[in-house]
Amino acid sequence: MTVATEIDVQTAHDDMMASAEKVALEFLEQEHARWSGLDSEAGATIESIADLMRSGGKRIRPGFCITGYLAGGGAPGNPAVVAAAVALEFLHTSALIHDDVFDDSPLRHGAPAVHAKYAARHRALGWQGESRRFGESVAVLAGDLALGYADFFMAQAISAAPAVAGAWNELRAALQIGQHLDVVAAARFTGDPKLSRTIANLKSVNYTIHRPLLIGALLAGRADLSEAFEFYGLAVGEAFQLRDDLLDMFSDSDTLGKPAQLDLERHKMTPVLSLAIERDPAVRALVDGPEAGGAELRRRLLDSEMSGAVENHIAGLVVQGGAALADAGLAPERRAELISLAHAVAYRDK
Predict the structure, then answer these.
(1) In this structure, what is the dihedral angle of CA atoms 105, 108, 112, 114, given to the nearest 10 degrees?
(2) Global pTM?
(3) 69 burial level (CB within 10 Å; 0-12, 13-18, 19+)
(4) pLDDT at position 3, please?
(5) Angle value at C-alpha 240, between 238 and 243, nearest 5 degrees
(6) C-beta separation of 42 from 36 below 8 A
(7) Which of 33, 139, 268, 274 sits at 20 to 30 Å (Cα–Cα) from 201?
């Protein structure tokens, strides 16, 4: 591939990402205008979705979908791929809104989470009922609406490539089952590395990298890439999730744009914590004790060798991801791009 062609592919990726952003926000503006005509409050859920999407985010899932499509030799500018990218970001937005309710997290991207914003609004206006319940109700509805919008856009992709339907339905179902198991695991709060990994695979690994890549490949007519993208996606997706766990444990709220150490405080049985429980009796004792989510647990994790062990595992997963692409029939430049993306998500700082 010539340098000029390589630049063209990167330009195509950037242009399609920009198109997805534009399509999503213009759609939300139209929806807000349409529904706000009924009542001044009718557009509140749409406004919540739009505010969250405008506030930032890494756009990892749309990016991998478009990368998978272009890696499969898809022609630039395909509107069906743009629609799929939009759908994936709406699905992610839905998951974030609901996650913040489950975790009682007050911040997202450095701004009030949807449920916190509308609880505060309820209090400020002196409305009847419980402010917390009102805020959570609005957030649940906003998350559900974002999920509906995700289906609306993915239907456009499915009409272009019917095989996408299976991948999309599996992605959605796995995410919801993973969410449920995550809630249950937090309530049990017992170290179970197998369950923690299952939850991470359902809730994050598959839906962050593997299936977005697969959807992109299917839209390019490259079902033959399914196996390679699965092995790559599972390895790199696990590295992504482990980095997420480490950032939550050892980073700060200003860097993350959301409360740090929230998983510990909310008794989230992450893969990293589950492994620490299995390997370190002192961590197990703290988890089983009255201060299960307290500062002492974090100090013990900092003092342990878990962080270094997880870093080594992440490095191995990145290597596995690259190896999975060796015989996939990708152009060398496309393989190099996917390896670069693996490093980017595995070694990010927020």
Answers:
(1) -80
(2) 0.92
(3) buried
(4) 42
(5) 110
(6) yes
(7) 139
The dihedral over CA atoms of 211, 212, 218, 221, expressed in degrees to the nearest 10, equals: -140
For residues 33-54, b (16+ Cβ closer than 10 Å) or e, as one string? eebeeeeeeebbbbbbbbbbbe
Query: Which residues, given as ranges, of the chain have pLDDT below 70?
Result: 1-7, 266-267, 290-294
DSSP of 207-245 = IIIIHHHHHHHHHTT-GGGHHHHHHHHHHHHHHHHHHHH
Residue 46 and residue 174: Cα distance in Å, rounded? 25
257 and 107 in contact (C-beta within 8 Å)? yes
CA 169/CA 8 separation, integer angstroms = 33
Tens-place pLDDT, residues 197-252 = 899 999 888 999 999 999 999 999 999 999 999 999 999 999 999 998 889 888 77
Residue pair 45/146 in contact by the 8 Å Cβ criterion? no
Q: How is residue 242 written in tokens? A: 């482990």
Please state, in angstroms and rounded to a whole number, the distance separating the CA atoms of residues 296 and 146.
38
262-310: pLDDT as tens digits: 777 766 778 888 878 877 888 878 777 765 556 777 788 877 777 888 8
- Which of these, 309, 143, 322, lies nearest to 228 by C-alpha position? 322
Handedness of CA 97, 102, 108, 111 (dihedral sign): positive
Q: Where are the extended beta strands (E) located within the chain?
A: 107-108, 111-112
Evaluate whether 111 touches 94 at the Cβ level (below 8 Å). no
- The distance of Cα 253 from the centroid of its chain, to the nearest Å, equals 18
266: amino acid identity, one letter = R
Q: Which residue has the tokens 């150490």?
A: 261
Q: Say how far apart CA 102 and CA 81 lie, in whole Å.
A: 31
